[in-house]
Design brief:
Layout lengths: L7 H19 L9 H27 L5 H26 L3 H25 L6 H18 L11 H34 L3 H14 L3 H9 L7 E7 L4 E7 L14 H12 L1
Antiparallel strand pairs: 1-2
Helix pairs in contact: 1-2, 1-3, 2-3, 2-5, 3-4, 4-5, 4-6, 5-6, 7-8
Length: about 270
């Protein structure tokens, strides 16, 4: 997220191609049959591409301010994990079907955490992040259960859904406990948790929100500093360089990385 992502159309194409590639791999044993390519494409799109696209569309609908390219990139990342889990599940199913189903549970739980973490700290959603993770798992689960090769004899939908969501929330609970442990020292000393500080940082950097500035103002203290001024007299005017003796920090337009650009932009606007 701190480098230029590929254009959205390339990311969407990658979502489709990954689904088709998985479908071909999944149906490789039936190669030579007249309906081989048709079945492979349908299986790949239904199991991977369509759930990823549905997740992207729903998240964008619920969060219009979030760039669609970042949403699609997140969906592609989750699709890659699902593709790996599905592939490993197919390989293990021939040895022990229980191991194959266990891989599916673990893979879906990992993607659940992946979506939650990105939505929480990059999309800056404190509560909707859980909803996004729940919805994308539901999309994948519906299409997974429709495929009898990858998930044979699944049983009632509600029973299968409970198993998948319980495994996802167990992993989420472990993550929450981990966050609680690492947040405790900073929360005690400064009144701001480490995870909130990270969220404010990304919010400032990616969206130019002022949450970080408000947090620093709440925990900071007033101080006096010196200002260095140097002037250059020219024929018609005098140019001054004003240097405040402070370090702004790498907080986007709060200072640091964009400060010189903001000064230049202000000068161009005025003169």
């Amino acid at each position: 997220y701190f480098i230029s992502l590929p254009p959205t159309r390339y990311l969407l194409l990658a979502i489709l191609l990954l689904g088709v590639a998985f479908g071909l791999m999944m149906n490789v044993q039936s190669y030579g049959r007249p309906e081989f390519f048709q079945d492979a494409i349908i299986d790949g799109l239904m199991l991977l591409s369509i759930p990823a696209l549905l997740s992207s569309i729903v998240v964008k609908t619920m969060s219009m301010k979030t760039p669609f390219r970042r949403i699609v990139a997140t969906a592609l990342g989750g699709e890659i994990v699902y593709a790996l889990a599905y592939t490993l599940s197919l390989l293990l199913a021939g040895i022990d079907p229980l191991w194959g189903q266990l891989v599916l549970l673990v893979g879906s739980a990992l993607v659940f955490i992946f979506w939650y973490t990105i939505a929480r700290f990059v999309f800056i959603f404190k509560y909707r992040s859980i909803l996004f993770a729940i919805l994308q798992l539901m999309f994948y689960l519906v299409f997974l259960m429709s495929n009898k090769v990858l998930y044979a004899s699944p049983g009632p939908f509600i029973d299968v859904a409970i198993r998948f969501y319980v495994s996802a929330f167990i992993l989420l609970l472990s993550l929450v406990i981990f966050f609680f442990i690492i947040n405790a020292p900073m929360k005690k000393n400064l009144g701001v948790s480490s995870t909130d500080a990270a969220s404010y940082f990304f919010s400032q950097w990616l969206y130019h929100n002022k949450d970080m500035e408000k947090a620093l103002e709440a925990v900071g203290e007033g101080a006096k500093t010196i200002i260095h001024t140097m002037g250059f007299r020219r024929a018609k005017d005098t140019v001054y360089f004003v240097t405040p003796y402070i370090h702004f920090g790498p907080f986007g337009n709060l200072g640091g990385s964009e400060f010189s650009h903001l000064i230049s932009q202000e000068i161009e606007t005025r003169y």
